[in-house]
């Protein structure tokens, strides 16, 4: 309806500009079109009038739906094409970044090396939102299946839900969690957590830290 109105208005104004003598006739046509459009809008909104539409109007309405469906299909196709082009241009960049990160971290898969005496200390550091807290619990569960006793240390004092999240995950995997709330310094929490792990004779201590904005 909006597209039809715009086309009719544009055509009427163009006619008036080309021939000033026909301005009065164009104005009359515009008023008639406006009245007809208003009637169509009122009938479309009124349930009583919708039930008494003329068959030709219903066919016109169906034709409008077909046009809208075709336009939507063209828009969808265009968006899919644009997305494919963007993905093709971004994927090589992501691959380069991935390769550089792998090379930076050593480039080879190596087994965990456990300390000969005392707890093995694993500290997770990284950007915000990469999933460090969840990985702490997953790693603890993996080591527990290997027969290692673990302890999680909640040293992320900046994200309000970090300590609660690690505590909940620790309960799920059956691993104790050491925490001192959000008032203590992370370094002090880590030191005290290590002492607690030694008292409990834990094989591995996994320290969760706050996310960084940049590395």
UniProtKB/TrEMBL annotation:
Positions of the SRP54-type proteins GTP-binding domain: 119-215
Any GO CC annotation of this UniProt entry: signal recognition particle
Source organism superkingdom: Eukaryota
Family matches, as SUPFAM superfamilies: P-loop containing nucleoside triphosphate hydrolases
Any one GO BP annotation for this protein: SRP-dependent cotranslational protein targeting to membrane
InterPro entries: P-loop_NTPase (IPR027417), SRP54 (IPR022941), SRP54_GTPase_dom (IPR000897), SRP54_N_sf (IPR042101)
Record keywords, A-Z: GTP-binding, Nucleotide-binding
GO molecular function (one): GTP binding
Name recorded for this polypeptide: SRP54-type proteins GTP-binding domain-containing protein
Species of provenance: Miscanthus lutarioriparius
């Amino acid at each position: 309806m909006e597209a039809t109105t715009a086309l009719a208005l544009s055509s009427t104004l163009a006619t008036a500009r080309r021939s000033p003598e026909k301005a009065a006739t164009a104005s009359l046509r515009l008023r008639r079109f406006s009245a007809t459009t208003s009637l169509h809008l009122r009938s479309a909104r009124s349930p009583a009038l919708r039930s008494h539409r003329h068959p030709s109007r219903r066919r016109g309405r169906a034709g409008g739906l077909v046009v809208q469906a075709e336009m939507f299909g063209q828009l969808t196709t265009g968006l899919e094409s644009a997305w494919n082009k963007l993905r093709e241009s971004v994927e090589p960049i992501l691959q380069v970044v991935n390769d550089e990160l792998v090379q930076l971290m050593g480039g080879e898969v190596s087994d965990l090396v456990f300390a000969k005496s005392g707890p093995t200390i694993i500290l997770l550091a990284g950007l915000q939102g990469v999933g460090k807290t969840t990985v702490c619990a997953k790693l603890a569960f993996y080591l527990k299946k290997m027969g290692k006793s673990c302890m999680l240390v909640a040293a992320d004092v900046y994200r309000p839900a970090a300590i609660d999240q690690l505590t909940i995950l620790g309960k799920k995997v059956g691993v104790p969690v050491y925490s001192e709330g959000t008032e203590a310094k992370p370094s002090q929490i880590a030191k005290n957590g290590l002492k607690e792990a030694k008292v409990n004779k834990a094989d591995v201590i996994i320290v969760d830290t706050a996310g960084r904005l940049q590395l």
